[in-house]
Amino acid sequence: MKQAIGIDIGGTKIAIGLVQEDGTLVHSTEIETPTKSRDAVLSAVVDQVKQHAHTASAIGIGSAGQIDVNQGIIRSGTDNITDWNNVPICEYIQQQTNLPTYVDNDVHTFLLAEKGAHKNVLALTLGTGIGGAAYIGGQLLSGEWGGASEFGHMSVNFNGEPCNCGGRGCVEQYASGIGIHKRYLKAGGEATHAGEIFSRALAGEKRATRIIDEAEQALSTAIVSLIHCYNPSHLILGGSVATKQQGFISSVMEQVSQRGMSSLVKPVTYHVSQKEYAGVIGAGLLAFEREGKA
Amino acid sequence: MKQAIGIDIGGTKIAIGLVQEDGTLVHSTEIETPTKSRDAVLSAVVDQVKQHAHTASAIGIGSAGQIDVNQGIIRSGTDNITDWNNVPICEYIQQQTNLPTYVDNDVHTFLLAEKGAHKNVLALTLGTGIGGAAYIGGQLLSGEWGGASEFGHMSVNFNGEPCNCGGRGCVEQYASGIGIHKRYLKAGGEATHAGEIFSRALAGEKRATRIIDEAEQALSTAIVSLIHCYNPSHLILGGSVATKQQGFISSVMEQVSQRGMSSLVKPVTYHVSQKEYAGVIGAGLLAFEREGKA
């Protein structure tokens, strides 16, 4: 069976693996991200890739941030890596390895690892921020240059507070880890991260309960809007908030099924990702997906 | 050049025409919609179609409402036609004419008539209600059964008033003709339709100005969310509000370019449809689009 190299570049770790066309992970390694410079990251990646280059037919890369999928450029990646903007990563790795190389946003590649047999599916990652991906009509949606599916920056309140994206009242301000934390502090609470606020809401603290209830309403509203837009059959949830806050996710999905057009929201199933190496697997699958279209 | 029959079924008129693959309208007729029964509509359509059936290779239909594009069924159409729900329109017309027949929502077909060479484009019709369509990666998005692109029912206010769709604070409640009219009445004003309220806002009436300003903010917020979701290069606007209220549309699009992620919103161009027979042409083009995939 054909194999591709999947690379998942994060701000703290880089995971690299050999992935089969059916999504089986044959081998994987993890290294610490050398955050001090762009060149350090690129040469660390090439070092790892070269160990597998003889058995693979292509390379797929998943990276946080805005990715130009047509040009193979990381337009704006994680702030953790120095000078990690406008990186022509595909051109560089292709030159060093002689293998066709593709890159996409890491939530888009995550979706590829998790979509199963669904032809119309959305992915939402709920962590410090909120990321998104859409696979509709059997096609991973990129849009004009690859910037599609910024679901964290759908507004759920047009009179809301300004968001760093330039908009107002984005769902990320209400329902991401950072958003929940900020709103709790602003309401006069003290906590070091969102996990504490979830725990306090469960324990019945009024302030925390109000913030979490609002997160639930904002997130379910955004998910209903997404279902109205894309008519998916399935929803994939990932990220630390999804994996750790099961009660929260159940309430959100219960609200989703009760709001909105029943013909669209009722049939939608969902699962929370449990796959440990979804990032690497999805990156490998991206290479097969793009090779199929080349 | 190949020709298809395009049929645009509305609550008051049905337009039928012969359309070339390049979008040229060769011939067209319009009849009053026989609203008294489903059978009256279907036989009127078949009568018209038979006049052109010998020169066409396929039939495309655009209809308001929820359309099951896989089964060729109008799930819920306009209330103006008696018993116009769950109509297996493709099966019926195919049997009567022996031509392959396809149906889709009329905003989806409108987009096909207006998209030009764009590969990533959204359409929004702003009339009594708000409709939508998305063409991304060179593909008309249908979703699981054809219910995609209900852009009027994106929420812009998760604490807003209940909408008849089941959601809350949908953009249609703020920026459609009916929405603007309702909000003006609720604010204590008197008017017979939205057009009057636009005129009074232009004349400086405070109440009307407040309602129209709110419509502008709600609509620009929804459009920014759509651009964040789909990364289109272009936006098509249609419907009576778009064609008649040029100042309103200019302000909305000015706000769009200033809100949201600049990498996504800045490059988006737009036009307001001026094509008289976009409905018929789009329906004809739908037939070619689907034949190409069959």
Description:
- Chains A, B: InterPro entries: ATPase_NBD (IPR043129), ROK (IPR000600).
- Chains A, B: One of its GO terms (molecular function) is N-acylmannosamine kinase activity.
- Chains A, B: Belongs to the ROK (NagC/XylR) family.
- The structure is a homodimer of 294-residue chains.
- By secondary structure, chain A is α/β, with parallel strands linked by helices.
- Chain A folds into 2 domains: 3-111 and 276-293, Nucleotidyltransferase, domain 5, CATH 3.30.420.40; 118-272, Nucleotidyltransferase, domain 5.
- Helix content of chain A is 40%, strand content 23%.
- The first copy, chain A, has 11 helices and 13 strands.
- A 5-stranded mixed sheet of chain A has the order 3-2-1-4-8. A 5-stranded mixed sheet of chain A has the order 11-10-9-12-13.
- In chain A, a hairpin with a 3-residue loop joins strand 1 (3-9) and strand 2 (13-20).
- The two termini of chain A are 19 Å apart.
- The model of chain A has no long low-confidence stretch (mean pLDDT 95).
- At the A-B interface, strand 10, helix 7 and helix 10 of A face strand 10, helix 7 and helix 10 of B.
